[in-house]
Amino acid sequence: MASIKIVTDSTADLSLELIKELGIEMIPLTVNFNNEFFADKIDISPNEFFTRLEKVDELPKTSQPAIGKFKEKYFELASECETIISLHLAGKLSGTYRAARLAADMVEKEADINIEVINSKSVSLGLGFLVLYAVQANNNGLALQEIIEGIKERIEASMVLFTVDTLDYLEKGGRIGKASAFVGSLLNIKPILKVNEEGEVDLHSKARGKRRLFRKLKSQVEKELAVREGSFNPRLGLVHGNALRDVEKLKEELSGLAEWDEIVVSEISPVIGTHVGPGALGVIVV
Predict the structure, then answer these.
(1) How far is CA 75 from CA 65, 144, 199, in A?
(2) What pLDDT was estimated at residue 81?
């Protein structure tokens, strides 16, 4: 019997192929296009999602997995392992973590299983890199408490920045006013959003035009690396919403800034894409 199994959700932005290869269990969130429901990344791919998104007037809605989905998965794994490490999207951004925590409490009362539910306080590859670390640490034979401490260390060291190509989706989602979106589009202003220490999204800064945007993102990564603490080499994650050309240019800018343990380029999940729109870019350092 495997001693530890790793569970996460679809906002980790890990490819389905990698998830299967590493034996990770994924619970998908849900995307709702006018009462058509899709399991995130399973029933609808990022490419299909962004193609559809550009054709609708009303933004799709997203929802967390039901507690029952977590209970079902935890009970299934209880016969295969002694401990589950369940890593999830920031609790301030979604009820996913809370649903997992409630399900774990119920299952632990009925099954002989220890479930460690962890709030990543992050999103996208900020979560995904924690999952990859947990898998690697488990495969290397680290004890449970060592793995948990390693995850916490990486949560504290992580930086997640997002930028959007257009303010329209933030405006449609009610996050900025129509006037701000209109002026921002006229001036070609690109907001840079940052996931803070508590797992909330803040407006970090702005840049006018992509050239300045890339310079500002590079500068911020350099600043982050200069003050970084930790006993491990950083990983660089680059994610995009149907913007492969831009993310490849960004990779060229950032790849030489450090001896990265790994550089991962991935697509933004449909759930995240609902809130940032096509053309979005993310830079993650963990």
Answers:
(1) 16, 20, 29
(2) 96
Which residues are CB-neighbours of 239 under 8 A, at least 6 positions away? Answer: 13, 124, 125, 247, 265, 266, 267, 268, 281, 282, 284
**Shared-domain flag, residues 15 and 131:** yes
Query: Which of 131, 156, 181 is where one domain is finished?
Result: 156
Tell which residue, 230, 264, 262, has the closest CA to residue 155.
230
Quote the pTM value. Answer: 0.93
CA distance 284 to 125: 7
The pLDDT tens digits for 182-196 are 445 546 788 898 999
Beta bridge partners, 31, equal 38, 62
Cα–Cα distance for residue pair 253/260, rounded to 1 Å: 13
Paired strand residues for 286: none
Of the candidates 184, 279, 194, which has an alpha carbon nearest to the alpha carbon of residue 239? 279
Q: Clarify whether residues 136 and 248 are in a common domain.
A: no
> pLDDT per residue over 213-248, tens digit each?
999 999 999 999 999 887 899 999 999 999 999 999
Domain co-membership, 18 together with 145: yes
SS (H, E, C) 78-140: HCCEEEEEEEECCCCCCCHHHHHHHHHHHHHHHCCCEEEEEECCCCCHHHHHHHHHHHHHHHC
Banded model confidence at residue 252, pLDDT cuts 50, 70, 90:
very high
3-state SS assignment for residue 267? strand
Residues of the domain holding 249 = 159-285
* Spatial separation of the C-alpha atoms in residues 207 and 263, rounded to whole Å: 25
Cβ(30)–Cβ(39) below 8 Å: yes
Average pLDDT rounded to a whole number, residues 49-73: 94
